[in-house]
Amino acid sequence: MIDEDLVFKALGDSSRRFLLDLLHKRDGQTLGELEWELEMTRFGVMKHLKVLEEAGLVITRWRGREKLHFLNAVPIRLIHDRWIDKYREHEVSELANLKKSLESKKWIPARKRA
Amino acid sequence: MIDEDLVFKALGDSSRRFLLDLLHKRDGQTLGELEWELEMTRFGVMKHLKVLEEAGLVITRWRGREKLHFLNAVPIRLIHDRWIDKYREHEVSELANLKKSLESKKWIPARKRA
DNA sequence: ACTATATGTGACCATTTGGTCACATGTCAA
DNA sequence: TTGACATGTGACCAAATGGTCACATATAGT
């Protein structure tokens, strides 16, 4: 079960959003690696990672003495569905544009189609 | 333009998300009307509405002595575009990871690591 | 003009939060 | 086994936050 409040609270801090960005660039980074990118001691980074993990936005795995951190987009996806999509009807046209844009990215050129 | 940090911070509080829900149900409500729905004095509600307004999530208009509040979904849409959609491409694999994680792996407390 | 209504301001307080540190545990490699 | 390395815990502190209140301003309606 995903706690919507934990997810929103986790996303409410720019350092944590930056950590998600870092993991998005390269998944499976250790605390030591992430620590380098922030102007903060590893203890601060650790706290932020804990918040992200408890919100389900980051999943971890141990490899020996290293803790690997992986981005989990599922909670964000659920927010997208449960919260943001609530406002669809207010902006039908823009959403249509977005959809078109996304679909065109998946466009398969004629020569490669079966 | 739109301060992403203000938007995320504004969304990070459940009372404020509830206020957005109320405005989504019925747009243009006054402070007095919204106040009824929360278990909080009007001062608290006022502060939350101010945060929402400064984040651009709520737009206001005066009608005599009444202040009408309107939901503005645009900042949410921008988050949708620049933040959430970032993770679209990873969605499938992350979902797979989660599934695998839930099915086969068990969390091993640090103290008990081999 | 008078009074009830609707919202605003600044001070204030308790709690939460972001961040650091001393110290501790667990792991790798020589 | 020894020592360097990677992460964890609990206490601690300053700052931000959620919420209330006394007091103030502006508008509506009679």
Q: Which chain pair shows the most residues in contact?
A: A-B, 31 and 34 residues
Average pLDDT across residues of chain A?
77
The name of the CATH topology of the domain at 4-72 in chain A is Arc Repressor Mutant, subunit A
Global Rg of chain A: 18 Å
- Strand percentage of chain A lies at 5-15%
CATH superfamily of the domain at 4-72 in chain A: Winged helix-like DNA-binding domain superfamily/Winged helix DNA-binding domain
**What is the CATH domain class of the domain at 4-72 in chain A?**
Mainly Alpha
Tell how many strands the DSSP assignment of chain A holds. 3
Distance between the termini of chain A: 41 Å
Q: What best-fitting shape of chain A do the alpha-carbon axes yield?
A: globular
Strand order of the largest sheet of chain A: 1-3-2
Structural class of chain A: alpha+beta
Topology of chain A as a string of helices (H) and strands (E): HHEHHEEHH
- Quaternary structure of the protein: homodimer
How many strands, which pairing sense, and closed or not: the largest β-sheet of chain A? 3 strands, antiparallel
Approximately how much helix is present in the residues of chain A?
A: 55-70%
Poorly predicted regions of chain A are: 88-114
CATH level-two architecture of the domain at 4-72 in chain A? Orthogonal Bundle
- How many helical elements of chain A? 6
